[in-house]
Amino acid sequence: MKKITTILLLSVLFISACSGGDSEEKEATTTSSGDNISIVLNGDSITSDSDQVTVDGSTATITAAGTYEVSGELDDGQIRVDVGDNDEVTLILNGATIHNEDSAAIYVVNADTTTISLAEGSNNTLSDGNEYTFENVDEEPDATLFSHDDLVISGSGTLNINAAYGDAIASKDDLEIYDATINVDANDDGIRGKDSITVENATLNITAVADAMKSTNDSDTEKGYILIESGTFTITTTGSTESSSKGIKAYTSITINGGTFDINSSDDSIHAADITITGGEYMLASGDDGIHADNILDIGAGTINITDSYEGLEAADLRISGGTIDIVCKDDGINAAGGTDTTTASGRQGDMFSTSSGTLTISGGTITVDAEGDGIDVNGDATISGGTIIVHGPASGGNGALDYDGTFEVTGGTLVAVGTSDMAMSISGSQNSVMINLTSTYTAGSKVRIVSADGDEIMSYTAIKNFQSIVFSDEQLKTNTSYTVYIDDEEYTTFTASSGSTQVGTSGGMMPGGDQGQGGGFR
């Protein structure tokens, strides 16, 4: 569906629209114009001079394609759009306040495309009651702004929606939002586009009991997606005992190319089968995963700050090629595992991926993980060829900074993984690495440095929690070269790097493939 550009409507365009909507270049206005058909709301009544608007008490039904300007206040009524299958309608909201106590405030019964155009500088409000009287067996409409067909919301005005019954905005086809400012408070979902949601340059402030934004088509692989090009998103989901409460959710895919996101959700902040992120700034706090993809999660750019989560990033196939990612989590920071998880109102139901497979590929970016569980957990193979990865792993036993079931190969980049020693695992690959198991526990604030015999410092790390083991890989770690480890500026031990993986010290740690580590040369 093409984007509908919002410009000043010319009278010739109005004539074309009223003649049946054959023009291929429909345009909607966001400013008041004498050529628009006027619908005036007067408390408990509605007036319009056009025979294309049928008024029955406090309900106005638009019966033909065209552009209609709605203003005034309606105490308990409805604006309906019921036109031909190929007709397009534009509703310009210009200081309109509409409340319907037992149904949708705006209800698109039938149309090709309906555009809700917010007049420049206008403030508009839609609201409903907490119980609906339904018109059909499908229990529809079921949102304050509801459309059976394609719905576009555009313009430089503001739309406020107070949805006491359930969803705030719902389209059973495609939903597109451009430029508009929309404030939503919903007792169920915030914004729902069954086939798709597309957002560009909009400001969305959403508080919802259930999912804030979602696309739900599960019968067509080319639908059920969300595409976000740009915009500002402030999202809060509070959760309920009856439904999930995710920030942004799609059945098939979510693609985000830019925007600013502040999401505080009781479930996953972002969730879909496949997720692609190529830009944007994210502040995420979630009751479950920060970002969860059932299949592929591909992050190429952006600044992602997950301040609170059960797990930070989770996907069956997790790929990171760029961006800045900071993760704080109660369990695993990065979890490459196949399958889907289950979360109820009482919390996450165990580790749903313990016997699954997964892959992790990191080729770029700057990643910092602060995990109470495993820092990086891969139920399969991991490959690192670039980027900088710092893992502040668990301070207590039972988890490790690194945990994998297959191989963990490093061919480039920088990796520092620090945690407990009982579950510590070393790594392999063409780039040299060292695992240093300490004889005692060191506390937060301790500083570890690795210095070559020539005096070059190749690693400097300051702990943020207790630790007993360090895994380090970097191109500066050279074969057959001697290095000294300093802790809090005191010499701790020396070692000579071997080709591949070197282990220093004994512990209950694991070598690549899950083999028990062998002792190294402590002082």
TrEMBL record:
Taxonomic placement: Bacteria, Bacillati, Bacillota, Erysipelotrichia, Erysipelotrichales
Signal sequence bounds: 1-20
Protein name from the UniProt record: Carbohydrate-binding domain-containing protein
Gly residues bias: start-end ranges: 506-523
Keyword Signal: yes
Keywords: Signal
Sections of the chain in a coiled coil: none
Region of interest: Disordered: 498-523
InterPro entries registered for this protein in UniProt: Cthe_2159
